[in-house]
Design brief:
It is a single chain. The protein is an alpha/beta fold. The protein has two domains: 6-126 and 312-331, NAD(P)-binding Rossmann-like Domain (Rossmann fold); 127-307 and 345-354, Dihydrodipicolinate Reductase, domain 2, CATH 3.30.360.10. It contains nine helices and 19 strands. It has helices spanning 15-24, 40-50, 58-64, 76-88, 103-116, 130-140, 183-198, 312-327, 335-354; strands spanning 6-11, 30-36, 53-55, 69-72, 92-96, 120-123, 147-155, 202-208, 219-225, 230-236, 249-251, 255-257, 260-262, 266-268, 274-278, 281-286, 291-296, 299-302, 358-359. Strand 9 and strand 10 (230-236) form a beta hairpin. The longest helix is centred in the C-terminal third of the chain and has 20 residues, at 335-354. The protein is globular. 50% of the residues are buried. The protein binds nicotinamide-adenine-dinucleotide. Nicotinamide-adenine-dinucleotide (NAD) binds at residues 11-17, 36-39, 42, 58, 73-76, 78, 96-97, 123, 125, 185, 256.
C-alpha cells in the first residue's frame, strides 16, 4: 500500500460523525483534514478534541480544501444533495447508510458520481465488523454447509413512551421511518449483510415497515434469497425485553442498542445477535460484542477474531476506501450495494400495501 494517507473531509458531526472521528484517530492510513457541521457547539467542541479545520458550510470546505474523499454522515434526507455536491467538486464520496430514502434518489447519486468520474462508496459498516467478516469467511469455506436461514431481531424497550423515533430531521413524513433500531434505520444494515454473507441477491420479499409520523407497529421482513436461503428481521422497541438476570455477554466493542450507543468494555444483557443456520452447522454472531460462536456435530466453540472491534470498523471501512482510491483496488462496497438494499426495503413497504409477496428483478 502507498505511504500517502487518504485526505478525508467529514460532513456531519452528530452521533455517528463523532464516532468516525474517534475511529480515524487510530488509523495510519487516514488524515482527517477538515469537517463541516452546521451546529456551532458540536463543531467547536469536536474541533478542540480532534484538530480538523472546521467549516459551518460544507460547500466552502469543498472549495477550499484538497481532499481525496468526503464522508457524508448527515441525516439520510440530505444525502443526495451533499453527495452530489461532493461529486461535482471532484471528491470521492463515502455515504453513510441508508444511501437515500427513495430509490430514484439513490440512482441519481450513483449517476452523478459516475458522471463526475469519482467513486461512490456505500457505508455498509457492518461489512467491516470482524465477527461478520469471519462469519462470511466460514460460510464461504463451507463450514456450515448450505445456508438455510439468517435472522436478527431487536425487541425490547421500556414501553410505548420509550420509543426512540428518528423523527422528520432524518425521515420525511409519510415515507419510511421509525426508530433507530427499526427496519429502515437499522434493518438496512442486515439486508445488505445477509446478501453479502451468502453471496446471493434477494429474489422476493414480504414485510412491514413503519411510516415516519404515523403510529408505529411491529416491523418485520422476510427475504427469499435466490440461492434458497431465508432472511428474517423482526423489530419492536415499545415493549419490554424478556432477558433474564445474568444473560448476555461482555462486549469488547461499542454498540448501538435499545439503550442507545453503549461504549466498549461493558456487560450487555441483550447484545446485537445475528444467527445463521446451515445444513452442517450454525453461527451465532455478536457483531458489536466482537464474539463469534460455531455449533456443529462437534459441539459449540468460540472462533478467534482478527481486527478491531467497533468503532474500529469505521476506520477499516475508510482504509478500504484508501486502498481503492490510492492503490486502485476495486471499490469494496459500491453505491450499487446501497441501491440494492434500498430496493429490497422499498419492496417490503409495497408488499404490505399490496398484501402480496413482491419479486425483485
Ligand atoms: N453505520 C452506522 O452504524 C451508523 C450509525 C448511526 C447512524 N448512521 C447514519 O449516519 C447518518 C447520520 O446519523 P446520526 O445518527 O449521526 O445523525 P445526527 O442527527 O446525530 O447527526 C447528523 C449531523 O449532521 C449535521 N448536519 C445536517 N445537515 C448538515 C449540513 N448540510 N452540513 C453539515 N452538517 C449537517 C447535523 O447538525 C447533525 O449534527 C444517517 O444516515 C444514519 O443512518 C450510521
Amino acid at each position: 500500500m502507498t505511504k500517502r494517507k487518504l485526505r478525508v473531509g467529514l460532513v456531519g458531526l452528530g452521533g455517528v460523525g463523532s464516532i468516525h472521528l474517534e475511529a480515524y484517530r487510530d488509523s495510519s492510513a487516514i488524515e482527517l483534514v477538515a469537517a463541516a457541521e452546521i451546529d456551532d457547539a458540536k463543531r467547536t467542541s469536536l474541533q478542540a478534541r480532534y484538530g480538523f479545520r472546521p467549516y459551518a458550510d460544507f460547500t466552502r470546505m469543498l472549495r477550499e480544501e484538497t481532499l481525496d474523499l468526503v464522508c457524508v454522515a448527515t441525516p439520510v434526507v440530505t444525502h443526495e444533495a451533499v453527495a452530489i455536491a461532493c461529486a461535482e467538486a471532484g471528491k470521492h464520496v463515502l455515504c453513510e447508510k441508508p444511501l437515500a430514502v427513495e430509490v430514484a434518489s439513490a440512482r441519481r447519486m450513483i449517476a452523478a458520481c459516475a458522471a463526475a468520474g469519482v467513486k461512490l462508496f456505500y457505508g455498509a459498516s457492518y461489512r467491516f465488523l470482524p465477527a461478520l467478516r469471519k462469519a462470511r469467511d466460514l460460510i464461504g469455506s463451507g463450514a456450515i454447509g448450505e445456508v438455510l436461514l439468517m435472522r436478527e431481531q431487536e425487541i425490547g424497550g421500556t414501553g410505548p413512551d420509550g420509543r426512540q423515533i428518528m423523527g422528520f430531521a432524518h425521515y420525511p413524513p409519510g415515507g419510511p421511518g421509525g426508530s433507530g433500531l427499526g427496519l429502515v434505520d437499522h434493518g438496512i444494515h442486515l439486508i445488505d449483510a445477509f446478501g453479502w454473507m451468502t453471496g446471493s441477491p434477494v429474489a422476493s420479499v414480504f414485510g412491514r415497515g413503519n411510516i415516519s409520523g404515523a403510529a408505529p407497529s411491529t416491523e418485520y421482513l422476510l427475504m427469499n434469497f435466490r440461492n434458497g436461503s431465508l432472511g428474517h428481521l423482526l423489530y419492536e422497541d415499545s415493549t419490554f425485553p424478556t432477558s433474564l438476570p445474568g444473560e448476555g455477554i461482555f462486549s469488547w466493542g461499542s454498540a448501538w442498542s435499545l439503550d442507545g450507543y453503549v461504549p466498549p468494555g461493558r456487560w450487555q444483557s441483550a447484545p446485537g445477535t445475528i444467527h445463521v443456520h446451515g445444513t452442517k452447522g450454525a453461527l451465532r454472531i455478536h457483531h458489536y460484542a466482537h464474539a463469534l460462536f460455531l455449533t456443529d456435530r462437534n459441539g459449540t466453540r468460540q472462533i478467534e477474531l482478527e481486527g478491531s472491534s467497533a468503532p474500529g470498523h469505521f476506520a477499516a471501512q475508510m482504509e478500504s476506501c484508501a486502498r481503492s482510491i490510492l492503490d486502485g483496488a476495486p471499490v469494496e462496497v459500491p453505491g450499487e450495494a446501497g441501491l440494492a438494499a434500498l430496493e429490497v426495503l422499498t419492496a417490503a413497504y409495497r408488499s404490505f400495501e399490496e398484501k402480496q409477496v413482491i419479486s425483485l428483478g
